[in-house]
């Protein structure tokens, strides 16, 4: 679907974020998230500049932070885009300060992605 509609996407900048979703009926990737007081699943999503979802990484247990296995999961997202003939090199990626680890910034640089991520002063990299 992405390959067929790539011309309609607005990839001048892309947005990366995670989502914790309650998993009321269980499942394979479920963990207790104290902040939500529920068992949840978390997933990373990438959207274009208009909010159109582009790719989603494999779900992870919700007891993990968004940065758990971040480079590997981001690799899945990049592979999905490349399979749809959407180049990742040159993307301008926006994310919140939860995505500030140095290793992720280095992964973006390795892929020639401009990471627009505010510094997280509380994080001990």
From TrEMBL:
Residues 16-35 are annotated as: Disordered. This is Transposase. It comes from Hymenobacter frigidus. The lineage of its organism: Bacteria, Pseudomonadati, Bacteroidota, Cytophagia, Cytophagales.
């Amino acid at each position: 679907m992405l390959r067929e509609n790539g011309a309609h996407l607005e990839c001048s900048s892309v947005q990366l974020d995670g989502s914790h979703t309650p998993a009321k009926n269980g499942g394979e990737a479920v963990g207790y998230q104290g902040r939500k007081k529920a068992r949840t699943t978390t997933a990373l999503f990438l959207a274009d500049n208009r909010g159109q979802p582009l790719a989603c990484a494999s779900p992870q247990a919700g007891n993990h932070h968004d940065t758990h296995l971040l480079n590997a999961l981001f690799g899945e997202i990049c592979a999905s885009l490349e399979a749809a003939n959407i180049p990742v090199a040159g993307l301008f990626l926006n994310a919140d300060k939860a995505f500030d680890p140095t290793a992720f910034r280095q992964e973006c640089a390795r892929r020639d992605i401009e990471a627009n991520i505010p510094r997280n002063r509380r994080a001990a990299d």
